[in-house]
Amino acid sequence: MLSKKFVVDTNVIIIDPYCINKLKGKVHIPTCVLEELDNHKNDNGEKGRNIREFARILEKNVDLNVNFYDTSLIEHLKNDDKIIQVAENTKSVLVTNDIYMSLKAKAVGIKTQRYEPVNIINDSAYSGIIDVRGQKELPDFIYPNQYVLGDNGLKYNKNNNLKRLPKDGDVWGISHRNVEQKCAFHALLDNDIKLVTICGKAGTGKTLIAIACGLHATIEKNQYRRLLVSRPVVPMGNDIGYLPGDISEKLGPWMQPIFDNIDFLFNIDSSKKKFDAYLELEQNGLLKIEALTYIRGRSIPEQYMIIDEAQNLTKHEVKTIISRAGEGTKIILTGDPDQIDNPRLDSINNGLTYVIEKFKDQKIAAHITFRKGERSELADIASEIL
Question: For residues 347 and 255, what is the distance between their CA atoms, to the nearest angstrom?
């Protein structure tokens, strides 16, 4: 028998459409809350998406322990007061993040509870790796190129057969520091895998590893004509306006993280040491840094193509990019769905998340989610708590 009853405020549903699955008890939803949600269901961004997702959850899950409380008979009260009245009538805990509403409820003897959302998107999304250590049987279904960490080591699904990863070594002076990075090195260097998606928080090594593998495949192995690197031109915070100079100078501020990584890789080994190494690579035609703005209509063959910060791309933009791939081209998308600077996108409807979901059952694609920060202890803690 359920021991607790809850009344859920509108603001709770807006920040987490899955809240009714996480509240352990009977959930009462006042109809005035549904009306408020309906008024904002067409909003752009995460607010509207969460409202629509909540409606789908209610529609599909008829067995949910949810009761709708008709507030149309409660007259002459504002919606906040109607919700408080429902909590009082049902003897429920009021779940709200509205401080004033919580204070008003407490004033009339109603228990309140603040809702702290859990980021279930990253917890439930496809990570590309499954851990079966200690389990007697494998899952019924394993995606193509999905990595399996078992008691006998690390393997991956190649044509419905689990194959052990080949022995690895340093790639352009760096090596993996954890299981996720080991899987990424394999996917990035496997020529049969034409599309690789890597997501993870800041400091996990996404961009550095992708560029290292691109340099290795392009320069050391001569498997591609050129390493092409780009990222969406979306500023973090307030834009600084138009920048002077030609296209290279305008792109400089946005591409500086790419330049930093390339210089770092060239300075690891003294035999490769070169100041502003990317300039020499560009002059020799081995590296191309360019904006995504002008990619429409092009065909890009035999190139190792890295799109950094891909979470700032729309679904349409990411389709345009991938469909430009010519024969012999490999595309890598890196990013963090929790760090989106594009105001039109959210953690669900961005291009990176969209590609991960759509390509997870394709034999020419692989995905890895990085969990562990490797940049520094400070960066790792900041990514967790801020």
Answer: 23
φ/ψ (deg, to 5) at 155? -135, 170
pLDDT digits (tens, 9 = 90+) for 29-57: 999 999 999 999 888 767 888 898 899 88
Among all chains, which residue has been given the structure tokens 């702290």?
A: 116
CA dist 380 and 77 (Å) reads 48
Please state the domain extents for the chain: 5-118, 179-385
Kindly give, in sequence order, each residue whose CB lies less than 8 Å from that of residue 381, ignoring residues fewer than 6 positions away: none
Q: Percent of the chain, pLDDT > 90?
A: 52
Residue written as tokens 């891909």? 310
Nearest to 337 by CA among 367, 297, 304: 367
Q: pTM for the whole thing?
A: 0.69
> 179-385: what fold?
Rossmann fold (3.40.50)
Q: Where are the beta strands (DSSP E) in 263-362?
A: 287-289, 303-307, 330-335
> What is 5-118's CATH topology?
Rossmann fold (3.40.50)
Cβ(98)–Cβ(115) below 8 Å: no
Task: Show the tokens assigned to 256.
Answer: 């500086």
- The yes-or-no answer to whether 5-118 and 179-385 have a common fold is yes
Cβ count near 80 (within 10 Å): 17
Q: Would you give the DSSP letter of residue 309? A: S
Distance CA 259, CA 73 (A): 64
Listing DSSP states for 212-247 in one string gives HHHHIIIIIS--SSEEEEE-----SSS------SSH
